[in-house]
Amino acid sequence: MKRSHLSRRTLLRGTGAAVALPLLDAMIPAMTASAATAAAPSRLKRIGYIYIPMGYNPAEWTPEGETLDELPSSLSPLEEVKDHLTVISNTDLQNAYPGSHATSNSAFLSAARAKRTESSDYYNGTTVDQVAARKIGATTQLPSLELSMDLLSTVGQCDNGYACVYQNSLSWASPTQPLPSEAHPRIVFESLFGEGGTPEQRRAAMQKRASLLDSINLEIKRIKNRVGASDRNKIDGYLESIREVERRIQLAEQNSHENPLPDLDRPVGVPTAYADHAKLMFDLQLLAFQGDITRVVSFQLAREASTRTYPEIGVPDPHHPVTHHGRDPEKLAKVAKINQFHVSLFADFLKRMKEVPEGDGTLLDHSLYMYGSGMGDPDAHDHSNLPILVAGGAAENMRGNRHLRFKAPEPLSNLHLTLLNKVGVPLESFADSTGTVDDLFDPVTL
User: Fold this and answer.
1) Nearest alpha-carbon partner for 158 in 149, 167, 146
2) Which of 112, 130, 295, 303 lies 20 to 30 A from 220 at CA?
3) Do residues 392 and 353 touch, judged by C-beta distance below 8 A?
4) How many Å apart are CA 384 and CA 167, to the nearest integer?
5) Kind and range of the H or E element at 368?
6) CA-to-CA distance for 204 and 48, rounded, in angstroms?
7) pLDDT at 204 over 70
């Protein structure tokens, strides 16, 4: 009863840096039930959204039955976390029609009809992540985090009369305010832990200190002297994760300096390999959640109409042309391979979240992630029967190892509304919703 109590907002402060701590036992007042404190699932909710472009090959994605006992090839990397996963079939985005790459992206989180314009008078809808951020992100360092894998945003008209902003921005703070996403790991890292500044200032700061953690050594020692052995282990593990991410960024920076010619336009600190870059961006999300720096994330794994190639998995062809498959078995197989590759990156991230203890469960238990695309069949540019996954949510009794297939097309906005309600953002409707997906969660018993 006499043990020390630390605030959930305790920071380790150094020169130009402030590092938040993960949830520690010392942050839970003695003789207080965890359900009434910051450890309560209702107060530790987080939500993330991951976007994949240009739909999928349903034959290699859709489970045959109502369980995930036999995962199809595109979902096979999720085997180890399928008990925390629900595959959802037969959702649609009616407001994304008449069918385009631009509206696939813009409607995915807004479920709104984008104004067709090539100019700056664009108009979409407030996206679901920003609705969540206003409520559950109000007390965190960053209300939300917008990430992507594409370093350069295209401008002008991109797709059948739609401004490029509809493909560049997954998140919109209002119908007229698209939010830029960040693909540079160093910039994201410093937005979480450092002072920011111009690229020149950031480089000077990097040269000034070998490591973010070196600048807060005294603070680390002070906090560790105030907590028990279990909390000291948690602190050590979290800080080691930060140091590992920092080390990988520095290696990428070193590589880009030593080998500049093949990649002249690539900013310093971005790994050359797509998978290495994506894993680093996922690790930054994990650190941000673990330190409660933010509770809302959106992440665009690739932009719509992307011509990125994936030779590392045997697909040297540009992604976009491959998706116009015309029922060609060879092209469909390549689409499935790309789907599987993207899913494998998500699966690795979920495994990492599952390994992080938090409160009465894990980081994954206290988080929800929705993964998917705003396009179904890319050859037809349709927005029906979308590929959608939901992971995590055990703290609110989400039922994993399931394939939930709607008999009739279900608005994707119904799923958005359901997840908002579960993370403590009670709404009666969202966009064109007609109800909630009640079968996704079992009733919570106290």
Assistant:
1) 167
2) 295
3) yes
4) 19
5) strand 367-372
6) 33
7) no
One DSSP character per residue, 411-428 reads: EHHHHHHHHHHHTT---S
Q: Are 235 and 226 in contact (CB under 8 A)?
A: no
Phi-psi region of 14 (alpha: psi -120 to 50; beta: other; left: phi over 0): beta
Tokens of 327: 């029922």
What is the pLDDT at residue 307?
Answer: 93
CA 97 – CA 91 distance, rounded (Å): 14
Helix or strand run (H / E) with residue 103: helix 101-108
Residue 38 and residue 27: Cα distance in Å, rounded? 8
Q: Which of 305, 304, 249, 309 is nearest to 281 (CA)?
A: 249
- Distance of alpha carbon 427 from alpha carbon 154, whole angstroms: 35
**111 token code pair:** 């479920």
Q: Tell me the HSE value of 327 on the side-chain side, using a 13 A CA sphere.
A: 0
Strands (E), 133-256: 145-148, 157-159, 162-163, 172-174, 177-178
Environment class of 97 (CB within 10 Å of its CB; exposed 0-12, middle 13-18, buried 19+): middle
Q: Which residue has the tokens 């870059």?
A: 277
Instruction: Count Cα atoms within 13 angstroms, Cβ side, for 297.
Output: 31
Cβ atoms of 373 and 54 closer than 8 Å? yes
Concatenated DSSP letters of 298-348: EEESS-TT----BGGGTB-S-HHHHH--TT-HHHHHHHHHHHHHHHHHHHH
| Phi/psi at 148 (5° precision) | -155, 180
Name the pTM for this structure: 0.82
* 305-329 tens-digit pLDDT: 999 999 999 999 999 999 999 999 9
Region of residue 174 (phi > 0: left; psi between -120 and 50: alpha; otherwise: beta): beta
And the tokens for 187?
A: 């910039």
Q: How many CA atoms lie within 13 A of 353 on its CB side?
A: 29
d(C-alpha 284, C-alpha 242), whole Å:
9
DSSP assignment letter at 296: E
Given a cut of 80, is residue 122 above it in pLDDT?
A: yes
Strands (E), 373-446: 388-392, 402-411
Take residue 101 and report the two structure tokens written for it: 């790459």
**What does the alpha-carbon distance between residue 265 and residue 224 come to, in Å, rounded to a whole number?**
43
* Residue 304 pLDDT exceeds 70: yes
